[in-house]
Amino acid sequence: KPNFKDAKIEVIGISADPVEEQKKFVEKHKLTYPVLSDASGEGRKAYHVGKGLLGMTDARVTFFIDKTGVVRDVLDTTINFGAHSKFVAKWLETIAAEEKKGVQARVWDIEK
């Protein structure tokens, strides 16, 4: 559980579980970021997040969205939980290097 509090980043979790289950999950795991309920599935639909593990479970997808609102990259791996924090850490390094060089955000056209 890396701590991204010192980084200029906002972490938000979103799950298909109802609000009451989200509250329990956040308390149990002492999460320091908000976890939102997408019980209706509208958020998953908007970001084209389907099922993982051959359709047996909800997918675990991490989006890295820069400060201009551009989705810079997406990691879709349901069982490798550690990969998600490494993915974010890698992007934080990339963004820091770009800011140091004065690079503006790139726009990527991503099709899935």
From TrEMBL:
One of its GO terms (cellular component) is cytoplasm. InterPro entries: AhpC/TSA, Peroxiredoxin_BCP/PrxQ, Thioredoxin-like_sf. Coiled coil: none annotated. GO terms for molecular function: thioredoxin peroxidase activity. GO terms for biological process: cell redox homeostasis; cellular response to oxidative stress. Keywords: Antioxidant, Disulfide bond, Oxidoreductase, Peroxidase, Redox-active center. Residues 2-73 form the Alkyl hydroperoxide reductase subunit C/ Thiol specific antioxidant domain. Pfam families: AhpC-TSA. It comes from the Eukaryota. This is AhpC-TSA-domain-containing protein. It comes from Gloeophyllum trabeum (strain ATCC 11539 / FP-39264 / Madison 617). The lineage of its organism: Eukaryota, Fungi, Dikarya, Basidiomycota, Agaricomycotina.
